[in-house]
Amino acid sequence: MQFAAVDLSELIARCRAEIERHCEHLGQLDSAIGDGDHGANMRRGLEAVYRERAEISALPLPAALERVGLVLVMNIGGAAGPLYGTLLMELGRGLAMREEAADFAATLAQAIGAVARRGRSGPGDKTLLDVLYPVQAEVAGYAAPVRIAECARRAARGTEMMLARRGRASYLGARSIGHEDPGASSCALLTVTICDYLKDHAPS
Ligand code: ADP
Ligand code: MG
């Protein structure tokens, strides 16, 4: 799919609706191993992006993604705000420097690297990165959207058995085991929403 064909306004509306629908669940996941605010944080972020969707979708995709990142940093708050913000801003900046969508996977990898540096975290720390890394690998392998979505769901579930080494959940030590990471869960939710959008708009 050509990026120019993405209706960002519709995609933003879908992401906002999914976060709204799962807000309570994300809050419950965060109550188990954090402070319970992840659903509310994500809702605040997506609501802010939704309010700006007309201006955002009028921009070329790289600038639009950068703007989404900025709005997320300013509105999600908590630990997740700067991390989601970094992801989107770096993705936007990276795409602006490349020819068309030639190497989206490489740009995504570089943006994920920036998130990891920002959070001083890596694979297996029980964070949203544990969804982002495997998703990037599927994107790099040109997997179909359904497969990428399934990978994201599986990766989020996979954080359940991990020991948290970063963020509030790490204060719990071994007691963090047995609970899915809220950031990984929201990240999978958004990935699935984007994949569903791409599937629905695939050229037939
Ligand atoms: P807070 O922890 O400040 O209350 P949220 O509840 O909104 O913020 O977000 C928590 C999520 O942020 C975690 O579930 C985890 O996925 C992610 N996270 C927290 N700290 C880090 C970190 N250092 N690196 C990567 N991700 C992190
Ligand atoms: Mg929290």
Topology record:
Elements: H1 8-33, H2 38-51, H3 53-57, H4 61-76, H5 80-96, H6 104-119, H7 129-140, H8 145-158, H9 182-200
Helix pairs in contact: 1-2, 1-9, 2-4, 4-5, 5-6, 6-7, 7-8, 7-9, 8-9
The structure holds adenosine-5'-diphosphate and magnesium ion (MG).
Adenosine-5'-diphosphate binds at residues 30, 34-35, 37-38, 41, 78-80, 83, 119-121, 127-129, 166-168, 181-184.
* Rg calc: 16 Å
Number of helix segments? 9
Question: Which word captures the global form?
Answer: globular
Q: Look up the CATH topology.
A: Serine Threonine Protein Phosphatase 5, Tetratricopeptide repeat
| Domain unit count | 1
- Low-pLDDT runs of 5+ residues are none
Percent range for β-strand residues: under 5%
CATH architecture: Alpha Horseshoe
Q: Notable features of this structure?
A:
Serine Threonine Protein Phosphatase 5, Tetratricopeptide repeat; binds adenosine-5'-diphosphate; mainly alpha; binds magnesium ion; 68% helix
